[in-house]
Amino acid sequence: MRVIKIGGHELDQPSFLEGLIAALRRMRPLPLLVHGGGKAVSAWQQRVGLTPRYIGGLRVTDDETRELAVMTLAGLTNKSLVAALAQAGLPALGLCGADLALVRVEPLPELGWVGKPSAVDAERLRRWLAEGLLPVIAPIGLGPGGLYNVNADQMAAAIAAALPAEELVFLTDVPGVQAEGAVRPSLRAREAEVLIAAGVIRDGMIPKVRSALEALAAGVRRVRITNLSGLEAGGTEILAEA
Ligand SMILES: Nc1ncnc2c1ncn2[C@@H]1O[C@H](COP(=O)(O)OP(=O)(O)O)[C@@H](O)[C@H]1O
Ligand SMILES: CC(=O)N[C@@H](CCC(=O)OP(=O)(O)O)C(=O)O
């Protein structure tokens, strides 16, 4: 089993979607997809006069932002991706973590309506994958009081750990983790923390690298961060400490 996380920057680009669809048509068994969409949530916040704010790469989510995040991520973003996949004949099933209580979260109250995945109904997901379906999961989880905004990298890592997946791939807009002007073919846990502390790994790359390490610790065998051209073998492989 394989989990592929798609970043929000990529989803906007028709050439990315075309490439993704071509790759999925060749891929058997089909993977499980988790998508982001942070860029679209920020755009909606700005449209209604809110300023996006992040702590440690996670969006501070007040009441109004929660509504926008749910409408965007579990709504237009998820359904647009599902529509593109379905048009291409792929058996896409679009859901968020609240559907069938697939992903429950632990609230992170200092961030508002943000949760960290705490339980995944892996049995249900495994069944769908075994049936040949292509689950497409939006990063909204279920917690006390209802719907929570979840960082999509954390969502993907939790699902990959629960399945467990043999491989978790973070598809993003850079070819891998860069340090000293080059893409690193691999990166160990301790080195990753040094690069985070030094500010070389920053912003949205922080939750991605940390989620990668959590997935490895939870038993996912292989985790990579790459762009679409590295989907099969490229990018940066994140390695747990030997
Ligand atoms: N050391 C690094 N190497 C590569 N990218 C980095 C690094 N540090 C920060 N980044 C940033 O992380 C971004 C990817 O994270 P993010 O924007 O959250 O992507 P996604 O939407 O795919 O989750 C890159 O576009 C880049 O600007
Ligand atoms: C809590 C939190 O930060 N949630 C994210 C969910 C979307 C996401 O992670 O999108 P990308 O993968 O495109 O960055 C957000 O609101 O931006």
Briefly, what CATH class? Alpha Beta
Whole-number mean pLDDT: 96
* Major sheet: 8 strands, mixed
Small ligands present: adenosine-5'-diphosphate, N-acetyl-L-glutamyl 5-phosphate
- Portion in strands: 25-35%
End-to-end distance: 24 Å
How much helix, percentage-wise, in residues? 25-40%
Tell me the count of domains.
1
Strand order, biggest sheet?
Answer: 5-8-2-1-11-15-16-14
Binding site for substrate: 37-38, 59, 149
Site (Transition state stabilizer): 5, 208
Enzyme class: transferase
EC number: 2.7.2.8
Features:
eight-stranded mixed sheet, two-stranded antiparallel sheet, transferase, 8 helices, cytoplasm, alpha/beta, binds N-acetyl-L-glutamyl 5-phosphate, Carbamate kinase, Acetylglutamate kinase, ATP binding, 242 residues, binds adenosine-5'-diphosphate
Structure overview:
The protein has 242 residues and is of the alpha/beta class. Helix 6 packs parallel to helix 8. It has a single domain, classed as Acetylglutamate kinase-like (Carbamate kinase), CATH 3.40.1160.10. The longest helix is centred in the N-terminal third of the chain and has 25 residues. A hairpin with a 2-residue loop joins strand 12 and strand 13. The mean pLDDT is 96. The protein is 39% helix and 26% strand. The strands form five sheets. It has an eight-stranded mixed β-sheet, with helices on both faces. It has a two-stranded antiparallel ribbon with strand order 3-4. The chain binds adenosine-5'-diphosphate and N-acetyl-L-glutamyl 5-phosphate (X2W). Keywords: Amino-acid biosynthesis, Arginine biosynthesis, ATP-binding, Cytoplasm, Kinase, Nucleotide-binding, Transferase. It is found in: Cytoplasm. InterPro entries: AceGlu_kinase-like_sf, AcgluKinase_fam, ArgB, Asp/Glu/Uridylate_kinase.
